[in-house]
Specification:
The structure is a homodimer. Chain A is an alpha+beta fold and about 190 residues long. Chain A has a domain at about 90-175: GMP Synthetase, Chain A, domain 3 (2-Layer Sandwich), CATH 3.30.300.20. Helices cover about 35% and strands about 35% of the residues of chain A. Chain A contains 6 helices and 10 strands, in the order αββαβββββαβαβααβ. Chain A has helices at about 1-10, 20-30, 90-115, 130-135, 160-165, 170-175; strands at about 15, 15-20, 35-50, 50-55, 60, 65, 70-75, 120-130, 145-155, 180-189. In chain A, strand 5 (about 60) and strand 6 (about 65) form a beta hairpin. In chain A, helix 3 crosses helix 5 (about 160-165) and helix 3 (about 90-115) packs across helix 6. The longest helix of chain A has 23 residues, at about 90-115. The N and C termini of chain A lie far apart (about 65 Å). Strand 9 of chain A pairs parallel with strand 10 of chain B, so a sheet runs across the interface.
Chain lengths: ~190, ~190
Amino acid sequence: MTTTTTTVSDKQTVNGVDVPALLQTIDAIRADPTLAQFKFRASDMWLGCGLNRATVGSFEGANQQHTRPVSFQYHVDEPPVLLGSDKGPNPVEFAIMALLGCLTNTMVYHAASRGIEIDHVESQVEGDLDLHGFLGLDPKVRSGYQEIRVKLRVKSDADVELLKKLAQKSPVYDTISNPVRIVVDVEKM
Amino acid sequence: MTTTTTTVSDKQTVNGVDVPALLQTIDAIRADPTLAQFKFRASDMWLGCGLNRATVGSFEGANQQHTRPVSFQYHVDEPPVLLGSDKGPNPVEFAIMALLGCLTNTMVYHAASRGIEIDHVESQVEGDLDLHGFLGLDPKVRSGYQEIRVKLRVKSDADVELLKKLAQKSPVYDTISNPVRIVVDVEKM
Protein backbone atom coordinates (compact mmCIF):
# COMPACT_ATOMS: atom_id res chain seq x y z
CA MET A 1 0.00 0.00 0.00
CA THR A 2 1.18 3.50 -0.74
CA THR A 3 0.39 4.58 2.82
CA THR A 4 3.12 2.30 4.17
CA THR A 5 5.63 3.60 1.62
CA THR A 6 4.80 7.20 2.53
CA THR A 7 5.24 6.51 6.23
CA VAL A 8 8.64 4.91 5.70
CA SER A 9 9.67 7.83 3.48
CA ASP A 10 8.51 10.36 6.10
CA LYS A 11 10.60 8.65 8.73
CA GLN A 12 13.67 8.52 6.54
CA THR A 13 13.57 12.19 5.71
CA VAL A 14 13.42 14.57 8.66
CA ASN A 15 13.55 18.33 7.91
CA GLY A 16 14.30 17.35 4.32
CA VAL A 17 17.50 15.63 5.48
CA ASP A 18 18.03 12.02 4.39
CA VAL A 19 18.65 10.62 7.87
CA PRO A 20 19.79 7.12 6.81
CA ALA A 21 22.35 8.77 4.52
CA LEU A 22 23.48 11.01 7.40
CA LEU A 23 23.89 8.00 9.70
CA GLN A 24 25.74 6.12 6.93
CA THR A 25 28.11 9.10 6.61
CA ILE A 26 28.82 8.97 10.34
CA ASP A 27 29.45 5.21 10.20
CA ALA A 28 31.70 5.60 7.16
CA ILE A 29 33.79 8.25 8.97
CA ARG A 30 34.06 6.03 12.05
CA ALA A 31 35.41 3.27 9.79
CA ASP A 32 37.73 5.59 7.82
CA PRO A 33 38.50 8.90 9.59
CA THR A 34 40.16 10.33 6.46
CA LEU A 35 36.65 10.66 4.93
CA ALA A 36 36.03 13.57 7.35
CA GLN A 37 38.77 15.78 5.87
CA PHE A 38 37.47 18.61 3.69
CA LYS A 39 39.22 21.46 1.90
CA PHE A 40 36.91 24.26 0.80
CA ARG A 41 38.06 26.86 -1.72
CA ALA A 42 37.16 30.17 -3.34
CA SER A 43 38.87 32.54 -5.75
CA ASP A 44 38.52 36.22 -6.46
CA MET A 45 39.33 38.69 -9.22
CA TRP A 46 39.55 42.39 -8.40
CA LEU A 47 37.69 44.59 -10.91
CA GLY A 48 38.67 48.05 -9.58
CA CYS A 49 37.89 50.15 -6.48
CA GLY A 50 35.80 47.92 -4.15
CA LEU A 51 34.40 45.61 -6.83
CA ASN A 52 35.37 41.93 -7.07
CA ARG A 53 34.14 38.87 -8.93
CA ALA A 54 34.29 35.93 -6.53
CA THR A 55 34.04 32.31 -7.60
CA VAL A 56 33.18 29.17 -5.66
CA GLY A 57 33.74 25.98 -7.63
CA SER A 58 35.47 22.83 -6.52
CA PHE A 59 36.31 21.43 -3.10
CA GLU A 60 37.89 18.31 -1.67
CA GLY A 61 36.12 16.01 0.75
CA ALA A 62 35.63 12.35 1.62
CA ASN A 63 38.83 11.57 -0.33
CA GLN A 64 37.35 12.95 -3.55
CA GLN A 65 37.56 16.07 -5.65
CA HIS A 66 34.10 17.65 -6.08
CA THR A 67 33.78 19.95 -9.08
CA ARG A 68 30.51 21.71 -9.88
CA PRO A 69 29.58 21.65 -13.57
CA VAL A 70 29.23 25.46 -13.38
CA SER A 71 30.96 27.51 -10.69
CA PHE A 72 28.99 30.01 -8.59
CA GLN A 73 30.03 33.63 -9.21
CA TYR A 74 29.18 36.73 -7.21
CA HIS A 75 29.94 40.41 -7.18
CA VAL A 76 31.46 41.57 -3.92
CA ASP A 77 31.49 45.37 -3.68
CA GLU A 78 31.30 48.28 -1.26
CA PRO A 79 28.30 50.60 -0.89
CA PRO A 80 28.53 54.29 -1.97
CA VAL A 81 29.12 55.48 1.63
CA LEU A 82 32.26 53.30 1.53
CA LEU A 83 33.13 54.66 -1.95
CA GLY A 84 32.00 51.61 -3.91
CA SER A 85 29.40 51.03 -6.63
CA ASP A 86 27.16 48.67 -4.61
CA LYS A 87 27.02 45.91 -7.23
CA GLY A 88 26.96 43.32 -4.45
CA PRO A 89 27.10 43.03 -0.67
CA ASN A 90 30.40 43.96 0.91
CA PRO A 91 32.64 41.30 2.47
CA VAL A 92 31.49 41.85 6.06
CA GLU A 93 27.87 41.43 4.92
CA PHE A 94 28.73 38.15 3.14
CA ALA A 95 30.46 36.97 6.34
CA ILE A 96 27.40 37.38 8.56
CA MET A 97 25.15 35.98 5.80
CA ALA A 98 27.32 32.85 5.91
CA LEU A 99 26.86 32.70 9.69
CA LEU A 100 23.04 32.61 9.42
CA GLY A 101 23.02 29.81 6.84
CA CYS A 102 25.44 27.81 8.93
CA LEU A 103 23.58 28.18 12.23
CA THR A 104 20.36 27.19 10.43
CA ASN A 105 21.75 24.16 8.59
CA THR A 106 23.61 22.93 11.66
CA MET A 107 20.47 23.13 13.79
CA VAL A 108 18.39 21.45 11.06
CA TYR A 109 20.85 18.56 10.44
CA HIS A 110 21.47 17.85 14.12
CA ALA A 111 17.74 18.01 14.83
CA ALA A 112 17.12 15.57 11.96
CA SER A 113 19.68 13.12 13.35
CA ARG A 114 17.71 13.14 16.65
CA GLY A 115 14.31 12.83 14.93
CA ILE A 116 13.35 16.40 15.94
CA GLU A 117 11.09 17.99 13.34
CA ILE A 118 11.55 21.61 12.38
CA ASP A 119 8.83 23.22 10.27
CA HIS A 120 10.21 26.67 9.63
CA VAL A 121 13.29 28.78 10.36
CA GLU A 122 13.88 32.41 9.62
CA SER A 123 16.72 34.46 11.00
CA GLN A 124 18.32 37.86 11.20
CA VAL A 125 21.80 39.01 12.09
CA GLU A 126 23.33 42.37 12.94
CA GLY A 127 27.01 43.10 13.53
CA ASP A 128 28.72 46.22 14.94
CA LEU A 129 31.73 47.60 13.13
CA ASP A 130 33.65 50.77 14.03
CA LEU A 131 35.60 52.30 11.11
CA HIS A 132 38.18 53.72 13.54
CA GLY A 133 39.72 50.24 13.39
CA PHE A 134 39.78 49.76 9.61
CA LEU A 135 41.04 53.31 9.01
CA GLY A 136 43.75 53.02 11.67
CA LEU A 137 42.39 56.07 13.55
CA ASP A 138 42.40 54.35 16.95
CA PRO A 139 44.75 51.42 17.72
CA LYS A 140 42.42 50.26 20.53
CA VAL A 141 39.57 49.61 18.04
CA ARG A 142 39.63 46.32 16.13
CA SER A 143 39.02 46.38 12.37
CA GLY A 144 36.53 43.50 12.46
CA TYR A 145 33.17 43.00 14.12
CA GLN A 146 32.93 43.99 17.78
CA GLU A 147 29.78 41.99 18.43
CA ILE A 148 27.36 39.98 16.30
CA ARG A 149 23.76 39.34 17.35
CA VAL A 150 21.64 36.60 15.79
CA LYS A 151 17.94 35.92 16.15
CA LEU A 152 16.63 32.54 14.98
CA ARG A 153 12.84 32.15 14.84
CA VAL A 154 11.95 28.47 14.72
CA LYS A 155 8.67 26.57 14.32
CA SER A 156 9.23 23.29 16.18
CA ASP A 157 8.04 21.45 19.26
CA ALA A 158 11.61 21.15 20.52
CA ASP A 159 12.99 23.07 23.49
CA VAL A 160 14.56 26.42 22.51
CA GLU A 161 17.66 25.80 24.65
CA LEU A 162 18.27 22.50 22.85
CA LEU A 163 17.78 24.16 19.44
CA LYS A 164 20.26 26.89 20.40
CA LYS A 165 22.78 24.28 21.54
CA LEU A 166 22.42 22.41 18.24
CA ALA A 167 22.79 25.63 16.19
CA GLN A 168 25.98 26.54 18.09
CA LYS A 169 27.72 23.43 16.74
CA SER A 170 27.93 25.48 13.50
CA PRO A 171 31.33 25.58 11.75
CA VAL A 172 30.99 29.28 10.81
CA TYR A 173 29.88 30.08 14.39
CA ASP A 174 33.06 28.40 15.65
CA THR A 175 35.19 30.03 12.92
CA ILE A 176 34.04 33.53 13.93
CA SER A 177 33.72 32.98 17.72
CA ASN A 178 37.17 31.46 18.12
CA PRO A 179 40.57 32.28 16.60
CA VAL A 180 41.51 30.66 13.30
CA ARG A 181 45.05 30.71 11.93
CA ILE A 182 45.04 32.44 8.53
CA VAL A 183 48.22 32.26 6.46
CA VAL A 184 48.40 35.13 3.96
CA ASP A 185 50.91 34.91 1.15
CA VAL A 186 51.36 37.86 -1.24
CA GLU A 187 53.27 37.44 -4.46
CA LYS A 188 53.96 39.70 -7.44
CA MET A 189 52.54 38.86 -10.85
CA MET B 1 43.81 71.30 -22.29
CA THR B 2 42.33 67.85 -21.77
CA THR B 3 45.77 66.48 -20.82
CA THR B 4 45.78 68.58 -17.62
CA THR B 5 42.27 67.47 -16.72
CA THR B 6 43.22 63.83 -17.23
CA THR B 7 46.30 64.20 -15.03
CA VAL B 8 44.29 65.73 -12.19
CA SER B 9 41.69 62.98 -12.51
CA ASP B 10 44.40 60.31 -12.42
CA LYS B 11 45.80 61.75 -9.21
CA GLN B 12 42.39 61.93 -7.55
CA THR B 13 41.48 58.37 -8.34
CA VAL B 14 44.01 55.71 -7.34
CA ASN B 15 43.09 52.04 -7.91
CA GLY B 16 39.61 53.30 -8.82
CA VAL B 17 39.24 54.72 -5.28
CA ASP B 18 38.24 58.39 -5.00
CA VAL B 19 41.10 59.44 -2.71
CA PRO B 20 39.84 62.95 -1.88
CA ALA B 21 36.51 61.38 -0.82
CA LEU B 22 38.43 58.82 1.30
CA LEU B 23 40.45 61.59 2.99
CA GLN B 24 37.25 63.60 3.53
CA THR B 25 35.69 60.55 5.21
CA ILE B 26 38.67 60.30 7.56
CA ASP B 27 38.45 64.03 8.39
CA ALA B 28 34.70 63.78 8.95
CA ILE B 29 35.19 60.86 11.39
CA ARG B 30 37.91 62.78 13.25
CA ALA B 31 35.42 65.67 13.66
CA ASP B 32 32.48 63.40 14.58
CA PRO B 33 33.50 59.90 15.78
CA THR B 34 29.88 58.67 15.68
CA LEU B 35 30.14 58.65 11.85
CA ALA B 36 32.42 55.59 12.15
CA GLN B 37 29.72 53.37 13.69
CA PHE B 38 28.23 50.81 11.29
CA LYS B 39 25.68 48.05 11.78
CA PHE B 40 25.61 45.48 8.97
CA ARG B 41 22.71 43.06 8.58
CA ALA B 42 21.53 39.98 6.75
CA SER B 43 18.47 37.74 6.95
CA ASP B 44 17.80 34.16 5.98
CA MET B 45 14.85 31.93 5.19
CA TRP B 46 15.28 28.16 5.44
CA LEU B 47 13.80 26.30 2.44
CA GLY B 48 14.34 22.67 3.61
CA CYS B 49 17.32 20.36 4.15
CA GLY B 50 20.46 22.48 3.57
CA LEU B 51 18.87 25.09 1.30
CA ASN B 52 18.40 28.71 2.39
CA ARG B 53 17.49 31.97 0.72
CA ALA B 54 19.71 34.68 2.23
CA THR B 55 19.07 38.39 1.85
CA VAL B 56 21.36 41.39 2.26
CA GLY B 57 19.54 44.72 2.13
CA SER B 58 19.88 47.66 4.47
CA PHE B 59 22.60 48.69 6.90
CA GLU B 60 23.29 51.57 9.24
CA GLY B 61 26.39 53.75 8.99
CA ALA B 62 27.59 57.34 9.28
CA ASN B 63 24.42 58.11 11.28
CA GLN B 64 22.19 57.11 8.39
CA GLN B 65 20.06 54.17 7.32
CA HIS B 66 21.18 52.82 3.94
CA THR B 67 18.56 50.83 2.07
CA ARG B 68 19.27 49.35 -1.34
CA PRO B 69 16.44 49.78 -3.86
CA VAL B 70 16.56 45.99 -4.42
CA SER B 71 18.03 43.61 -1.85
CA PHE B 72 20.67 41.06 -2.86
CA GLN B 73 19.44 37.46 -2.56
CA TYR B 74 21.44 34.24 -2.67
CA HIS B 75 20.91 30.54 -2.32
CA VAL B 76 23.02 28.99 0.41
CA ASP B 77 23.01 25.19 0.20
CA GLU B 78 25.07 22.09 0.89
CA PRO B 79 26.67 19.90 -1.80
CA PRO B 80 25.41 16.33 -2.42
CA VAL B 81 28.26 14.80 -0.36
CA LEU B 82 26.82 16.81 2.57
CA LEU B 83 23.28 15.71 1.61
CA GLY B 84 22.23 18.99 -0.01
CA SER B 85 21.06 19.95 -3.51
CA ASP B 86 24.02 22.24 -4.34
CA LYS B 87 21.90 25.23 -5.42
CA GLY B 88 24.55 27.56 -3.96
CA PRO B 89 27.85 27.50 -2.08
CA ASN B 90 27.66 26.25 1.46
CA PRO B 91 28.13 28.61 4.41
CA VAL B 92 31.81 27.82 5.00
CA GLU B 93 32.51 28.53 1.31
CA PHE B 94 30.72 31.91 1.54
CA ALA B 95 32.81 32.71 4.65
CA ILE B 96 36.17 32.26 2.92
CA MET B 97 34.86 34.03 -0.21
CA ALA B 98 34.12 37.02 2.05
CA LEU B 99 37.68 36.84 3.39
CA LEU B 100 39.22 37.15 -0.11
CA GLY B 101 37.10 40.18 -1.06
CA CYS B 102 37.93 41.85 2.23
CA LEU B 103 41.71 41.29 2.06
CA THR B 104 41.66 42.61 -1.53
CA ASN B 105 39.55 45.72 -0.86
CA THR B 106 41.47 46.57 2.29
CA MET B 107 44.81 46.34 0.47
CA VAL B 108 43.45 48.40 -2.46
CA TYR B 109 41.91 51.17 -0.31
CA HIS B 110 44.93 51.52 1.99
CA ALA B 111 47.29 51.50 -1.00
CA ALA B 112 45.15 54.22 -2.65
CA SER B 113 45.33 56.40 0.48
CA ARG B 114 49.16 56.18 0.25
CA GLY B 115 49.24 56.82 -3.52
CA ILE B 116 50.38 53.24 -4.21
CA GLU B 117 49.04 52.02 -7.55
CA ILE B 118 47.78 48.47 -7.92
CA ASP B 119 47.06 47.22 -11.42
CA HIS B 120 45.69 43.75 -10.82
CA VAL B 121 44.79 41.43 -7.95
CA GLU B 122 43.65 37.85 -8.09
CA SER B 123 43.44 35.53 -5.13
CA GLN B 124 42.70 32.04 -3.95
CA VAL B 125 41.81 30.62 -0.56
CA GLU B 126 41.66 27.13 0.89
CA GLY B 127 40.43 26.15 4.33
CA ASP B 128 40.71 22.84 6.20
CA LEU B 129 37.66 21.45 7.91
CA ASP B 130 37.39 18.13 9.73
CA LEU B 131 33.81 16.77 9.98
CA HIS B 132 34.69 14.98 13.24
CA GLY B 133 34.03 18.38 14.85
CA PHE B 134 30.69 19.19 13.23
CA LEU B 135 29.38 15.65 13.74
CA GLY B 136 30.51 15.54 17.37
CA LEU B 137 32.62 12.43 16.76
CA ASP B 138 35.71 13.83 18.48
CA PRO B 139 35.47 16.52 21.17
CA LYS B 140 39.09 17.56 20.50
CA VAL B 141 38.25 18.59 16.91
CA ARG B 142 36.71 22.03 16.39
CA SER B 143 33.66 22.34 14.14
CA GLY B 144 35.06 25.34 12.24
CA TYR B 145 38.10 25.86 10.06
CA GLN B 146 41.38 24.55 11.44
CA GLU B 147 43.55 26.65 9.13
CA ILE B 148 42.90 28.97 6.20
CA ARG B 149 45.54 29.71 3.54
CA VAL B 150 45.28 32.70 1.22
CA LYS B 151 47.36 33.54 -1.84
CA LEU B 152 47.11 37.08 -3.23
CA ARG B 153 48.76 37.68 -6.60
CA VAL B 154 49.29 41.42 -7.11
CA LYS B 155 50.56 43.50 -10.02
CA SER B 156 52.13 46.58 -8.39
CA ASP B 157 55.52 48.21 -7.87
CA ALA B 158 54.96 48.18 -4.09
CA ASP B 159 56.87 45.94 -1.69
CA VAL B 160 55.09 42.61 -1.05
CA GLU B 161 55.58 42.84 2.72
CA LEU B 162 53.88 46.27 2.75
CA LEU B 163 51.00 44.95 0.59
CA LYS B 164 50.55 42.02 2.98
CA LYS B 165 50.52 44.38 5.98
CA LEU B 166 47.87 46.56 4.31
CA ALA B 167 45.71 43.51 3.41
CA GLN B 168 45.86 42.26 7.01
CA LYS B 169 44.02 45.38 8.22
CA SER B 170 40.95 43.64 6.73
CA PRO B 171 37.81 43.49 8.92
CA VAL B 172 36.96 39.91 7.86
CA TYR B 173 40.58 38.86 8.45
CA ASP B 174 40.31 40.24 12.00
CA THR B 175 36.82 38.75 12.46
CA ILE B 176 38.06 35.24 11.60
CA SER B 177 41.58 35.46 13.10
CA ASN B 178 40.43 36.75 16.47
CA PRO B 179 37.47 35.89 18.72
CA VAL B 180 34.19 37.74 18.18
CA ARG B 181 31.33 37.63 20.67
CA ILE B 182 28.24 36.19 18.95
CA VAL B 183 24.94 36.39 20.83
CA VAL B 184 22.48 33.76 19.59
CA ASP B 185 18.84 34.11 20.53
CA VAL B 186 16.39 31.37 19.57
CA GLU B 187 12.66 31.96 19.82
CA LYS B 188 9.60 29.95 18.85
CA MET B 189 7.29 31.18 16.10
